[in-house]
Amino acid sequence: MKTSFRNKKKLLSFLFAALLIMAVLGGCADGTGESSGDNSSKEPGGSVVVGIQQDIDSLDPHKATAAGTKEILFNIFEGLVKPDENGNLMNAVASDYTISQDGLVYTFTLRDNVKFHNGNAVTAEDVKYSLERVSGLLDGTPLISTLKTIQSVEILDEKTVQVTVGSANTELIYSFVAAIIPAGSGEDESANPVGTGPFSFVSYTPLEGIVLAKNPDYWQTGLPYLDQVHFKIVNSADTALMELQGGAIHIYAYLTDSQAQALKGSHQVLASASNVVQALFLNNAVAPLDDVRVRQAILYAIDKEEINDFVGGGSGTLISSAMLPTLKDNYVDLNDTYGTKANVEKAKELLKDAGYENGFNLEIAIPSNYEFHMQTGEVVVEQLKAVGINATIKAMEWSSWLDEVYNGRQYTATISGITCDMTPGYLLNRFQTTSKKNFINFANVQYDELYVKAQETLDLAQKAEYYKQLQKILCDEAGSAFLQVPANMTAIDKNLTGYKFYPVYVQDMSTVYFNGK
Predict the structure, then answer these.
(1) What is d(CA 145, CA 490) in angstroms, rounded to the nearest whole number?
(2) Environment class of 517 (CB within 10 Å of its CB; exposed 0-12, middle 13-18, buried 19+)
């Protein structure tokens, strides 16, 4: 199997490496990841179709779970602050903020002339309502876990809101990207979302997509350029490729290597480091994966280099725990723990010790709309066969995967990706025993205690050390088979300019325009 996959990809990987270099060197402007084009010939207006791989799980920005939903809602909603393309926080609905010396009081000054899409000006009451809703102060149900630390939200005057939290946390400011919505509108947002972003909601058709229109009152002068953006659901890799080549789709992200090769002559194919951690996730509460020796055997059986070469043309970054290597101060390289190439003998030895000398059957659930994960599954199945594990793929529709696997935890193994925000604690947070996002059912007392310590300390060096220890526990206990951080390869119509790559999972359409060519 190894020879067949490698021979098949060797030439393509070489070609893509050259393409990637050209894309990175020729396709970036001022370090923003903008697509190439003539900035002097901007043509305002027009409509763009963006291909997406999954349906929307909720139009309510406080209840949306899937990263693929949040990347769309980024265009509709804004928080008091928002990320920029360089990974920094910029002021959004707030024009300024201060944090008290003890880290317990946040004071936000609201920006002048920010309007909701319904034409109403944003007020301090709207901010108070939004923060009380997400923190659980409104009804006792926190919608964003990191903000449940909020103790009170007070209006000091019509332009100033003061937020008091229960404990200091150096990463908390990043959670104030939570959307500001009109006071009292919570129950309406899922049907008629109203925000302050560069685009307003027009329509949504399940399994088809969502249409957005230009917000003429947007507070950032001159933005957006486009009149309309249609996020179109395309859950077949073949269909996506055909529609890109036929011009029915203008932008499509997260290409596989084979898709990138097919599009390199007709489209801009740009690449950037992603904030996605791909893994063969293992349900730690289901036999035989409840035995750490079995999980470790699977990790030894995996050849990450082969997966990266076959699916991503060698452009991904190999990892062994839940942290982005780009978060350098907090990342620890643990790839030597199990190795990046398969160790078949070690895997067989562990399986024998665990009582599975003759292997076992393993079903791997994969959302079929993600070709990247489906191709990864094909390689993993062959690798596991080499150690006696009879793995099969269960292709699932996205909504079913979300309900049964992610939310319901009714699975044994799955291949997918989890995304990170701009804080190193975001990925590690989900593996606490009691976390609602802990869909692998990882349970470790030492891990839980260390995570609490990491959040409590204001010493950044000590926090980083705690995070490294957490990564090591997750790796040593083989919580899951973490594979890689894939490169985000994106196809863009040659007539478009201004597309930016972000260090978080968003599709910012506010700066995209037709270049007049």
Answers:
(1) 32
(2) exposed
